[in-house]
Amino acid sequence: MKLHFEPNLDYQHDAIESVCDLFRGQETCRTEFTVTHNAVGGQNDIFSTNDLGIGNRLQLLDDEILANLGDIQLRNGLKPASGLASGDFTVEMETGTGKTYVYLRTAFELNKRYGFTKFVIVVPSVAIKEGTNKTLEITRDHFESLYPGAKGYEFFQYDSSKLGQVRNFATSPNIQVMVVTVGAINKKDVNNLYKDSEKTGGEKPIDLIKATLPIIIVDEPQSVDGGLQGQGKQALNAMNPLCTLRYSATHVDKHNMVFRLDAVDAYERKLVKQIEVASLEVDGGHNKAYVKVLGISNKRGVISAQLELDVQSKGHVRREPKTVQDGDDLEQTTGRAIYTNCLVGEIRCEKDNELVELKIPGGEHWLRIGQAIGDVDADALKRLMIRRTIKEHLDKELRLRPQGIKVLSLFFIDVVDHYRRYTADGVREKGKYAVMFEEEYRRLAAHPDYQSLFNNEVDLSAELEEVHDGYFSIDKKGVWTDTAENNQGNRDNAERAYNLIMRDKEKLLSLDTKLKFIFSHSALREGWDNPNIFQICALREIGTERERRQTIGRGLRLCVNQNGERLRGFDINTLTVIATESYEEFAENLQKEIEADTGIRFGIVEKHQFASISVTDATGKTQPLGVAQSEALWNHLKETGYLDAKGKVQDSLRKVLKDGSLTLPEDFSAQLPQVKEILRKLAGKLEIKDANERKQVKTRQAILHGEQFKALWDRIKHKTTYRVQFDNEKLLKDCAQAIWHCPPITKTRVNIRKADLAIGRGGVIAEETATGASITLDERDIELPDILTDLQDKTQLTRRSLVAILNSCNRLNDFARNPQQFIEFASETINRTKRLALVDGIKYQRIGDEDYYAQELFEQEELTGYLKNMLAVEKSVHEHVVYDSAGVERSFAEQLEKNESVKVYAKLPDWFKVQTPLGSYNPDWAVLLELDGAERLYFVVETKGSLFTDDLRDKESAKIKCGEAHFEALAIGENSARFVKATKLEDVMAHS
């Protein structure tokens, strides 16, 4: 296969033009210098003493480049630079949009326009170096056809043992491209780059490079610069660059940005794959003392750790972050007996040595950030992730293989040994992940749904060896190893790893190559990607800075078919990420990472946001609106209340965008469509109530102070007290019976949910698309807690009563199946049965004539509501009825208004409460009916969608029963108020 490159993609042209226009006004020229020869160690003179060095030359002044930069930033909608602080210029391009192609083509365009010939590409790792070199190899025909004048251009990977290439770099008249890792140039005391060498004719290689005034292209500068110490940045400056062009999706320092194609742009223009998350969430796995270290901090000398713990909260156990210090008792922190004698020991907050000591019964554990104890069986969960990845892969193969698309899946693992291990004799063996993969692959291959993908006559065992492989650093003995590229030996190890995966990318994309599933470690975190990665499974923790973006970045590029042609559209291009966090959490954390990495502020309008909008002047000439006018428009939006002082979009703006009523001052009226389009992308959805619609509801004085309402109020205004009686033996039997009827107690399960992620200017939104059947995890190392103590704390019953209930419920086997779930079900069931028992024996008594709800409270207590939930009325104490249910309550109010027998009524306010053992109860309506012009009837009405008790929640039904008993106690004398449950007014009339 030969990959095809598209030469006419508009966004790539825009990126190239943005860099090239920095030098607008520069003449085509070059600089020349003499390369001298200094004999080293008495060696023979093999170099001419008058070799001619050829380099780049810059004629423009800083002010001229600054003016060009301002024009470029204006047309690209970027914040304008106030000055030219350095010769660094930033291009931001989302992963997968062709960043490497763009900066290579930019070099050829710069040569064509201005004659620049010397380029140094600096990368952070061997992976990126190999990828860049591979791109240079496979694009030669493409670039030489686009730029005939560049034919014969030379490129090479810097090698400290082949320094003669550096002399050729300096003296060749052709375009020269040197690719080098920052690790090979950033240590002056040991690197040959800074030493005299006979291989360069006695020159220091760095001096030859400096003399050429190279244009430096930095790939992933956030990993090249060298952090706070800046060793990488110092090495770049030591090359004396004409300028430095910095390309990344995740810039830390945005020096003089000239072009931006960020994550939102790429997604909205469908330049990358659609992302979906298949989340495997554990349900019911709270039967062990779980502790995970989320972070460690030292603030003003106070060292603390943030732990994720299973915390008792409102009758249920929830996994929550808690901040702890040395000596904290986790039983007290969580409110759970399962953490008895679990203490926080020493917390270390040292560079490269952040640890938390946990003292638990039987020993102690030292945990680093991201590590956990007491979780469900990690291997069982990872097996399910591998199984799900294979299933997603095979499902896509069924759909895409007929279209000539090779489907690939990528596993990121924690330790190489888990995929391939070595015996003491150096014999390679399959690690646990490889064993899991082959078992699950064999299992799914036998499924009827996938028979068309396999040749039944071929032994699957032979194919199993070929469909998966690992790519890790390789030491001199050929052993895979976990290494960082922090020295030359480790860089050599990494370089050995990239044959098929890096140098033979086309072979990997061919359907003839059996390899489909790739296992790798951190060596592929950045710099390597493949257009046909459709599944990414992280068998290691995702959580460090930029981790999600780096992980999904390996598979964002649009796929290609067997002809090497790029295919577009989300219907084909969907990247599935298999993760162990919920898709809601994944989306939330991805949004945070995008904000941190790119500086995108979701829902924020910048002052320069409208600067690039096209404006046509009186002569018909088109030009950008400009920064000053953009700021004037921004100020108008702020003054109108559509933005706050920081530019954050307000709900009032979302509302006018939604209903199409946004207007602008006359000076900007012609730009309204373009402004609306920008604001729509930034605003997000209008999902909350509009504060402008909130209003106070006034009382209708004539009705409130009228004789009819006074007569109604006098019958219902009094308060009561209550007492309860119940049969203890019956309560215990009812509790046991209720536990027997509880839902089944399940073992710990894994629930699989899928959701599409939509990335817009308003934020990252997850929309659920599918759910899968729950999968049971068999946990055999659960220690049973003290059930009586737990239930006693939660129900306030005696241990003797609890023993009687548990012995009679016939569900104790379920306790061993899932202790925590059984305790939650049992305690909730017992408490519910207790509440109902209290209500069954409840008796109310009126307190007296002095304790009642005064009629004046209708005027003193403010009633407010939103217009969308208010109905204008005539017969009520209030001018509007505020309703919760648009169905039952609004309908009932309309019936009250229309029926001539209804003389006056009130929607009873929140302050009108009946006290019950289950909390206060607020009935719905007070109604006065007059029949045949004479007989008056008084009602308190509870309106529900159903009159059947079984259709109501237990607590709600019990409260209504208490309300009924309360008003029965007030029914003293003739023509008292009656309590009625109704769905419509006819139900009330039936009691007349």
UniProtKB/TrEMBL annotation:
Q: Which residues form the Type III restriction enzyme C-terminal endonuclease domain?
A: 874-979
Q: InterPro entries, from UniProt?
A: Helicase/UvrB_N, Helicase_Restrict-Modif_Enz, P-loop_NTPase, RE_endonuc_C
The Helicase/UvrB N-terminal domain extends over 88-250
Query: Per the record, GO CC terms?
Result: cytosol
Single Gene Ontology MF annotation: ATP binding
Q: What is this protein called?
A: Uncharacterized protein
